[in-house]
Amino acid sequence: MRTTGTRSLILFILVLGFFTGLGVFLYGLVTEGGSWAVQPFNGHLYGSGTSAAEGRVLDRNDTVLAQTKDGKRVYNSDPATRRAMLHAVGDTRGYLSAGVQYNYRSELTGYNFITGLFSPTGKTNGSDIRLTLDSSLCRLAREKLNGRHGAAAVYNYKTGELLCMVSTPDFDPQNPPKDLDTDKTGKYSGAYLNKILSSSFTPGSIFKVVTSAAAIENIPDLDSRTWNCNGSVTVDGNKITDMYAYGRLSFKNALAKSSNVAFAQIAIEVGADKMQAEANQMGFNRTFLLNGIPSGKSVYSVKSAKPNELGWSGVGQYTDLANPYHMLVLMGAVANGGTPVTPYMIKSVTPSIGVPSEQGSAKTGSQLVRPDTASRLKDYMRYNVSHEYGDSLFPGLAVCAKTGTAEVGGGKNPTCWMVGFSSNDSTPLAFVTLVEDSSTGSVASAGRIASALMTAAAKIS
Amino acid sequence: MDLSSLSSDFISVLLFVFRIAVPILCTVVACRCFTSMRLGKRREEPVVVLEDMATHKVIPVLYWENSLGRSRSCDVVLQDPTASRAHAVLMRRESGWLITDTNSKAGTFVNGKKVKEKAPVLPGDVIAMGSTALMLKRTSEVAALPPQPPTRRAAPPSGLMATVMLTQILLGLQLCLASGKISAAPLVPLGILMLVEWALYLYSIKILHHVSFELETIAFLLCGIGLAMQAGTNLKNTYTQLAAIVIGVLFFRFMIWFLGDMDRVMRWRVKIGILAVLLFAANLLLARERNGARNWIVLGPVTVQPSEFIKIAFIIVGTSTLDRLQTYKNLTGFIGFSAICMGALFFMRDFGSACIFFVTFLIIAFMRSGSVRTISLACAVAGFGAFLILKIKPYVAQRFDVWRHVWEHPGDAGYQQVRVLSYAASGGLFGVGLGKGCLKSVFASTSDLAFGMLCEEMGLVLAVTVILILAFLALYARSDATRSRSTLYSISACAAGGLLLFQACLNVFGATDVLPMTGVTLPFVSLGGSSMVAVWGLLAFIKASDERTYAARRRRR
User: Fold this and answer.
1) Which residues does chain B have within 8 Å of residue A10's beta carbon, measured at their own beta carbons?
2) Which of A108, A112, A121, A117 lies closest to B437 in space, CA to CA?
3) Residues of A near B (CB-CB distance < 8 A)?
4) What is the H or E stretch that residue A431 is in?
5) Contact B63/A2, CB-based, under 8 Å?
6) What Rg, from alpha-carbon coordinates, does chain A have?
7) What pTM was computed for the model?
8) Which of A2, A3, A18 is opposite residue B505, by nearest beta carbon?
9) Which residues does residue B134 pair with via DSSP β-bridges, in sequence order?
10) What is the pLDDT of residues A147-163, one digit of tens each?
């Protein structure tokens, strides 16, 4: 019988398997329990007769953007506000994965590992989330986009508060359109994406800010140099063209006129390695975070580019891509002497009982631009506005900016950009605006939106 | 805050306290039951001794069945080149000590008389094997052995039963207050369950004079939890469940009686095997498909799942006493029987049960043969068979496609699993309260998804306690293996313990997407008539392996 006793040890294999399985389950529950619990099908949170109430989402002025009433998620009463805030707040089904309601679902529902969704009194204790965003500013941005596909964002580069973040097309989260997922005309194409955070676009001329930084650091006599801009330059038999023949231009004017001929030659002169190093230093090919939500990457890669391709890359074409959120942070960096204050949009998370648990505050990110380079870029970009785009766009704000008109091909009109910031100490605001498939020029499209937003944002204290 | 909301808050907090108390009480009961079983177990001390007639060396005989022979793996090793490797088996039976010659070359002699099959051995008799001669002696006759300390007494079982009743009262109170209004209806089935448990207790302890009641206590504890879960979901089902528990208890007592006589078990083995095969045949012929599997037979008003009962037959057919193990080494018959069972289950598309049978087969086959080669071969054949089935019948593979990808299919193939995970997390450590869950509206919530229901309504702590109890049951069955009255009990108890644990694993891990979903019940907890009766039958194997189960009856004679 001793042998039988020894052989019975085979049961230990089974017990071991049991504990392994239990470990896998418990590990999942501890690490993912919050997202498991907060599912759109969860009857404790949604559906009729539920006693649960998720926390509210409020804007910086305590305007209620989303709350739970009688087991239903109810959004702001104004349809335009709902749609303007859609990508920041998120929807009920959790399809907008960059939204606050998705990323802060544990906080909103009050889920915790110990008591689950309910407190011992049988009620939910979801937290209210207060955003730094201003819903009227977002509504203004959406109004100015006026049905065109695009995006706009504004942030205070001293405090880090994100004031505006809007992406179009959008939809009403309160009454999602029936044809939202079935539509073939493209009117909702990208509606689930927050284009500020998650998308990357061909930058066009706004990339000249990066090429300029490379030129400042690598061409010692930059300000005394001139470029002959006759409308086109041929590199390896491939023609790089400009809108007009500008004649002979200094560097400052080449940037203001946004001469492709000059900047393609500068990029070729700086060389692929130094262009690549500069772009990487300025945050290309990497992810930035907004309250832990990762952004899409900006792309710059000239490792295997031919000289004419390197030229095109210097004017923001070739395979270049820019993520609007990264551009916003980059503008904050230039404005702030090279090192940005990281933007945030969660002002506070306030539990139903107790003190606010998360307070947003100014946190410095890593340096993107050398301080002296930042200072010179600022001057060139200020000159762009004062001599080219016109200070009448931003009265009294001393805005430094760069526009971009990116060719996207495929029979579409270009993507128009404007990125920049106010250099006034009293209005430390940076912005990014973009309009896809724009039939007008960048100042007339993205510039007008930026103008309206900056003027309105300057009034927010 | 007005008065009514104050009182509803008070009730909510009270119920929360109850939900904390229940797992604590369950842990106390389980711990005390398992320590009590450990204390009540006989120490590994000699039952009798053998004295070598030549050297006068005293060899202790530790077990009820002892192999004698030259092999080092024998319980009594004979240092004798003329003895066979496995020469004979010395067994303790109701009638006294017996010796069986297990096809030795030189033969076995008691007092000079050659043993044909079996021969009784009395103290003072001399057993001769090859050139060795051993005299059977009582331990008291050997001065060299220290006196036996008095056997330690197990904890009084009535206190544990009272604690079990207390948990059931707490569960009942939760049910009464669940809807906000006081309702007494859920107390009726729990009350009946309490009557059943005390009736069995009084019958076992007072009438049969059994000394142990721990296993039954644990089973009733789990049944109570399961019944409370049913009551919070569908009160009508509790009566079906209750009826199954009563039949289960009766079946349990019948099995204890049936297993009492080893010779009877060995005589019935073949008949039971044939019956099992016929039952499978009947199932295949009569069953209609239900939820993708053809494992139900409708007999008038009741539906029966024959495969549940065949689990018990399977263990009976698989097990064997030590003398037979030594004589008939080969497993061909049992392997053939197992193949028929698993084949039938595949035809019924009951893959969960097929896996359970396979694991049980592995445990039995290994405990009988000790051959890693046989086990590897069986696994290889099973693997190949599974591969063939997946090739020939692609719809089987579809069932496993969703495994570890359930979140991508929340609306179709992963429907049940994502809801289990979501609602299990919603419950936290102590649950949302009996009857207040949302998982109950999902198909098969109280059977296949019972673990999720426990997590959601009664909390993770209780749910984990329940499955830990099942794991400890298997460990207990193992630890008792050498204390049984025969390898028949050791093997059957380990097989039953392993089966229960593996079935629990399939249920728990299937529902939580650790393993593919197969749809088996959680022993003692899930809703299910046949399965409830069968798990009580399986518990009887573990009970029978405890030598105290039959000790009282002997004392009475």
Assistant:
1) 362-363, 366-367, 494
2) A117
3) 1-5, 7-12, 14-15, 17-19, 21-22, 24-26, 28-29, 32-34, 36-37, 39, 41-44, 111-118, 120-123
4) strand A429-435
5) yes
6) 26
7) 0.82
8) A18
9) B52, B127
10) 999 999 999 999 999 99
Contacts with A325 (C-beta within 8 Å, 6 or more apart), sequence order: A153, A196, A197, A288, A290, A295, A296, A343, A432
CA distance A440 to A443: 8
* Closest-CA residue to B62 (of A247, A5, A337): A5
What's the per-residue H, E or C state across B226-289? HHHHHHHHCHHHHHHHHHHHHHHHHHHHHHHHHHHCHHHHHHHHHHHHHHHHHHHHHHHHHCCC
Mean pLDDT for A257-273 is 95
Residue from B426, B432, B440 to probe the interface with A (highest A Cβ count within 10 Å): B426
Token readout for B304 is: 């029966």
- Please, what are the domains in chain A? 198-343+365-457 (3.40.710.10)
Nearest Cα to Cα of residue A265 among A299, A223, A308, A224: A308
What's the rounded Cα separation, in Å, for the pair A40 and A118? 17
Which residues of chain B make contact with A21, given a CB cutoff of 8 A? 505, 508-509, 514-515
| Residue B134 CA from chain centroid, whole number | 38
Nearest CB neighbour to A121, from listed B13, B359, B419: B13
DSSP A282: T
CA B314 – CA B342 distance, rounded (Å) = 11
pLDDT tens profile B380-401:
988 888 888 788 777 667 777 8
How confident is the model over B214-226, as a mean pLDDT?
95
Distance from CA of A187 to the nearest CA of B (A): 26
Q: Which has the closest alpha carbon to A320: A285, A296, A344, A368?
A: A285
